[in-house]
Write a structure and sequence with these properties.
The chain has 571 residues and is α/β, with parallel strands linked by helices. Among the domains are: 85 residues, Arginyl tRNA synthetase N-terminal domain (Gyrase A, domain 2); 260 residues, HUPs (Rossmann fold), CATH 3.40.50. The chain is built from 22 helices and 13 strands. The strands form four sheets. A four-stranded parallel β-sheet has the order 5-4-9-10, sandwiched between helices. Strands 1-3-2 form a three-stranded antiparallel β-sheet. It is globular and about 80 Å long.
């Protein structure tokens, strides 16, 4: 398919001393189609050329106007303020889109990431604790990024870096020693372990001696004490059974479950490498790395006074391991912004442990916290909303709405599951990642407006239209002139931009870009549907509108799947 942005950047580069590749990144898609299909902001050239943006725009227009007479891809160019607006040939655009739709089963898929390795770390719950809504964003953002990078041809490795090590397990071991005979962990294990954790955590606040015993338990665990290791394995196995129920419901997959414990025998290499380079400093019995050279005033603690590692040490070991094992181009950490300082520290320390190219590929995909309307959640206090309860509650609510609207619907349970999960997934991914979210049931279960169910309803509507038509016409039978009205063109432009939207998601590691796109496409189809009869006597016109409907259906389904949603066939 023709790349119109590339065509435009090539035209501009002929008339200005800036690379085509750089100019390509400047080109924008105007929100209002009256301002063209693509827009080039000349403000970015004003300082370098020492001219006003509008002067630059007019000069470029004059030069390019003479060249596009031989280029039928561009209909016209206009200047608006400091912008150079390009209008694409509508017939060529429509033809390109429909030919691409007809020739590709997976529209928008590409190989631009071929030969590049992307590691995505996401979800990473703590074992022996509930999988609550605080884990929802990392799980769903990471899962979507994993799918989209893979769709664009990257060799993508999804890692569930389980929180299965640290002082908290010293606490759990101590809790089991004290109260294990009170709990049958084979029944409702997560809630039982949660109760034990809350009890021991409260006791640690009251009694320093108990806290010290917990620290010693973790040291024993690190040293391979059989009792502690066996108990730790029990906690982990019971937790994974529960976690996998959630992952199965959300259709979330991983290539590796190597958590913090996996790196316990790789910590010595971190310590020795830092010592060898003279970067490890003793401070009050602990070992730290000074980061003033990187503009970070807080040093990175690498080893506690009792010789135990901390999660920063294990993260450093993970960076070394992943560099050797995966030779990554990017290693993404989908973790809440509360850990911003932590990642700045370990990325800085990584300069002493791995090649510069790996340090440059380390990225913290931070996201805002999830809180309840009553305040922030805390596993220490037991104030959580479990994801399983959230999902099941949403599915039940979806079932009630579906029953009310279509009591005779077949496979009601299956449809409710897809709609309920779709509501949860889209609600989570529709917000810019960095923003905090207050989780509110009414918002999550709102089936009106810019929601997952709205996209699913639009998809079901396209399916209904295609069923009425009985068959999808062949591309050779589509007359492009029948799709040059404003409503059809709006859809065609959106479909054309699908691959570019996916690239934008990976450029910014922001799945909400795709969420917004699917809403825009659904709205554009609704407008088209409301303004045009599709099943009509004019077969040529009907064929064109049917094929456009088929195209929308294909892209909506593919886009939703890349977010992690499934589409129902009826609602």
């Amino acid at each position: 398919m023709k790349n119109f942005k590339q065509i435009i950047s090539k035209l501009i580069s002929k008339n200005i001393d800036i690379s085509e590749k750089e100019l390509y990144t400047y080109i924008e898609t105007p929100k209002d189609s009256k301002n063209g299909d693509y827009s080039f902001p000349c403000f970015r050239l004003a300082k370098e050329l020492k001219k006003a943006p509008q002067v630059i725009a007019n000069e470029l227009k004059e030069k390019i106007d003479n060249q596009i007479k031989e280029n039928d891809n561009i209909e016209k160019i206009e200047v608006a303020g400091g912008y150079l607006n390009f209008y694409i040939n509508k017939k060529i655009l429509a033809k390109e889109v429909l030919n691409e739709i007809s020739s590709k089963d997976e529209y928008g898929k590409s190989d631009i990431g071929k030969g590049k390795n992307i590691v995505v770390e996401y979800s990473s719950p703590n074992i022996a604790k509930p999988f609550h809504i605080g884990h929802l964003r990392t799980t769903l953002i990471g899962n979507s990024l994993y799918k989209i990078y893979k769709y664009l041809g990257y060799n993508t490795i999804g890692i569930n870096h389980l929180g299965d090590y640290g002082t908290q397990f010293g606490k759990m071991i101590e809790a089991y020693k004290m109260w294990g005979n009170e709990y049958n962990l084979e029944e409702d294990p997560i809630n039982k372990m949660m109760d034990m954790y809350v009890r021991i955590n409260n006791l640690c606040k009251e009694d320093e001696k108990v806290l010290e015993r917990c620290r010693q338990n973790f040291k024993l665990l690190e040293n391979g004490d059989k009792y502690c290791v066996d108990l730790w394995n029990k906690f982990k196995d019971l937790s994974m059974v529960e976690f996998n129920k959630i992952y199965d419901m959300l259709n979330v997959k991983f290539d590796s479950y190597n958590g913090e414990a996996f790196y316990s025998d790789k910590i010595d290499e971190v310590i020795k490498t830092l010592e060898k380079k003279g970067k490890l400093i003793e401070s009050e019995g602990a070992k730290i790395v000074d980061l003033e050279n990187f503009g970070i005033s807080t040093p990175c603690l690498v080893q506690k006074t009792n010789g135990s590692s901390i999660y920063a040490t294990r993260d450093l070991a993970a960076i070394m391991y992943r560099a050797k094992t995966y030779n990554f181009d990017k290693c993404l950490y989908v973790v809440a912004y509360e850990q911003n300082l932590h990642f700045k520290q370990i990325f800085a320390v990584a300069n002493y442990l791995v090649d510069k190219k790996y340090v440059q590929g380390l990225e913290h995909v931070s996201y805002g916290m999830v809180s309840l309307p009553t305040g922030k959640m805390s596993t220490r206090l037991g104030n959580v909303v479990k994801i399983e309860d959230l999902i099941n509650g949403t599915i039940e609510k979806a079932k009630e709405i579906i029953t009310d609207k279509n009591a005779q619907l077949e496979n009601k349970e299956e449809v409710a599951k897809k709609v309920g999960l779709g509501a949860v997934i889209f609600n989570t991914l529709s917000t810019t990642t960095i923003k905090d979210q207050i989780f509110d049931w009414d918002t999550a279960l709102n089936f009106q407006g810019e929601t997952g169910p709205y996209i699913q309803y639009t998809y079901v509507r396209t399916k209904s239209v295609l069923e009425k038509a009985q068959n999808i016409p062949e591309i050779k039978d589509i007359k492009i002139d029948n799709l040059l009205d404003d409503y059809s063109l709006e859809i065609l432009k959106l479909i054309y931009n699908f691959e570019d939207i996916l690239i934008q998601v990976t450029d910014k590691n922001e799945p909400s870009i795709l969420s917004r796109y699917l809403i825009d496409l659904s709205k554009a189809y609704s407008s088209f549907y409301n303004e045009n009869k599709i099943i009509i006597d004019d077969k040529e016109l009907q064929n064109a509108r049917i094929y456009l409907t088929y195209s929308v259906r294909k892209v909506l389904k593919q886009g939703a799947e890349l977010l992690g949603m499934q589409m129902p066939e009826k609602m």
